[in-house]
Amino acid sequence: MGKRLKNIEWWILVLALLLCVIGFVALYSATQSDNFEYLRKQVIWFVISLIVMVVVAFIDYKILVKISPILYGISILLLIAVLFTKSINGASSWFNIGGFSLQPAEISKATVILFLSYVVATLQINGKEEINRIWKIAIILATVALPVMLIILQPDFGTAMTYIISLLMVLFVAGIDKKYIIAAIVLIVIGVPLIYKFVLPAHARTRIDVFLNPESDPKGSGYNIIQSKLAIGAGELTGMGLLNGNQTQLGYLSPKTTDFIYPVIGEEMGFIVSAIVIVAYVFLINKILYIAKTARDDYGTYIAAGVAGVFFFHMTENIGMTMGLLPITGVPLLFISYGGSSLLTSFLCIGLLLNISGNRKKTIYMSNGSEYGNF
Questions:
Q1: By three-state DSSP, how is residue 195 classified?
Q2: Is residue 263 in a domain?
Q3: FRET label pair with 321: which of 34, 60, 159, 247, CA 20 to 30 Å apart?
Q4: What is the total count of domains within the chain?
């Protein structure tokens, strides 16, 4: 146990807690008009999430990988069941349980990553190059395609994209051949215009149009992004102060507790704290990739790579969309945005990372560079 605790990459937990603290402060300011209801619920979810994280951190992750087919099957059933729930804001994505909402698409991120790692490692049992067989790639793609299609039916394109980015990270780390990467890029270049024209619903196309030209509809579809950029710019270096942001406190930002919480930070805490958020994410993702590199087996490597993909996409998409650099999607800023399912899943992933890093075997090298042994 002492060796495991010594090996654990504690910085990932420290950085996650730092982001949570900033999120609590932002929620305190953003929810004062609602008697801090969202903040209280977030604190409750935070406590629950920490308990789940500790439990996951001390169960051998290989046991979780072995039962991942069962967890994956349960996730698929939940993703099907949620389609029959009452629509909220145009999407059937949540189960309402005793005043709290549970989003299966969020929780399923962890179970799908576990099962994906199991599938990829199993298909590579005879060698790393086995990943490049067409039929094996088809199996891997189908593993993720099923939950992605169910999430698109909700519809939730932002969360569906998270799964795809996580898949790409795992495939890249697994050693997929460059020809498949090139083929994927070509398909994306050809497919994106076709998807935009014939597949995306009207509201999704509108978001892309607004991203390209938000001033075309400043009081309609472009309203949120314009207010978001105004809030971030108004904060300048040190911010306007908690409870003093114009866009935040006068109700111009919406939804300011979830998708647009980063502008709250930018307006009231300023560039310095906004930059700290980005730097913390960069260091967190860097540490996760280091865990993937030093994991004791392929399971650990692929799990860490998948989690890195999730965290990277959420950071890039959420912050990018609030600055007008990317189209608006319903992707929260992990650890900071309000959302119990998101917070629970994020700390579940942190628990997996602590688990993987604690079970690492670090190599000792002699002064001449030759390998001596492991401990």
A1: helix
A2: yes
A3: 34
A4: 1
